[in-house]
Amino acid sequence: MADENIIYVGKKPTMNYVLAVVTQFNNDANRITIKARGKAISKAVDIAEITKRKFLQTVTYEKITLNTETLEGERGTSNVSSIEITLAK
Amino acid sequence: MADENIIYVGKKPTMNYVLAVVTQFNNDANRITIKARGKAISKAVDIAEITKRKFLQTVTYEKITLNTETLEGERGTSNVSSIEITLAK
User: Fold this and answer.
1) How confident is the model over A41-63, as pLDDT tens digits?
2) Least enclosed by CB within 10 Å: which of A9, A40, B32, B38?
3) What pTM value is reported for the model?
4) A81 and B38 in contact by Cβ < 8 A?
5) What's the CATH code of the domain at A81?
6) In which region does residue B84 sit, left (phi positive, over 0), alpha (psi from -120 to 50) or beta (all else)?
């Protein structure tokens, strides 16, 4: 369970997500994956970098994956880029 | 020389950068690094994904690096996240 932590980045302030990541690591998570799509990708990178530099210097990037997801909308489908950043301690 | 291609992502439309990447690969580059900071990070991921999915399916992600850069401004320093995406064929 402790290895299955996923945080989805949305419209909340960056520091809310940083706090969530730090809290989960302090609650015995060994690995956390930050997922974001579209314009939230920049925020996901901020979250990962702030976590590493300001809070948990021993955490490392285990894996960074880029992908394209297809969204079904009322007017057909559209593609959006996504990122998955896995941090491990 | 052909291994030292760097593309800096700025305010131009995404497809301008995609075209630059595709052109450089077609001009015998074996490896291209896309660099971006701050909000341009999302655009860098779009550029890489569009290049891979629509134009050069044989290209792979060789390396993805996240970092924090310190910018010197008139009102002191500020930190900004950055990404480097290296595509190789």
Assistant:
1) 999 999 999 999 999 999 999 99
2) B38
3) 0.92
4) no
5) 3.30.110.20
6) beta
Q: Which residue has the higher pLDDT, A82 or B71?
A: A82
Residue to test with chain A: of B17, B45, B57, most A Cβ within 10 A: B45
Complete edge-to-edge strand list for the sheet that includes strand B60-73: B5-8, B31-37, B76-88, B60-73
Alpha carbons B88 and B14: distance in angstroms, whole number: 20
Q: Which of B38, B49, B66 sits opposite A48 (nearest CB)?
A: B66
Of B61, B67, B81, the CB nearest to A66: B61
Domains contained in chain B, number: 1
Query: How far apart are the CA of A84 and the nearest CA of chain B, in angstroms?
Result: 11
Average pLDDT value for chain A: 94
Tens digit of each residue's pLDDT (9 = 90 or more) over B49-68: 999 999 999 999 999 999 99
Q: A-chain residues within 8 Å CB-CB of B18?
A: none
Which DSSP state fits A55?
Answer: I
Q: Per-residue confidence at B75, pLDDT binned at 50, 70, 90?
A: confident
Question: For B63, what's the count of Cα atoms within 13 Å in the CB-facing half-sphere?
Answer: 9
Q: What is the number of CB-based contacts under 8 A between chain A and chain B?
A: 46
Range of the domain at A42: 3-88
Q: Tell me which chain B residues have a C-beta less than 8 angstroms from the C-beta of A41.
A: 41-42, 45
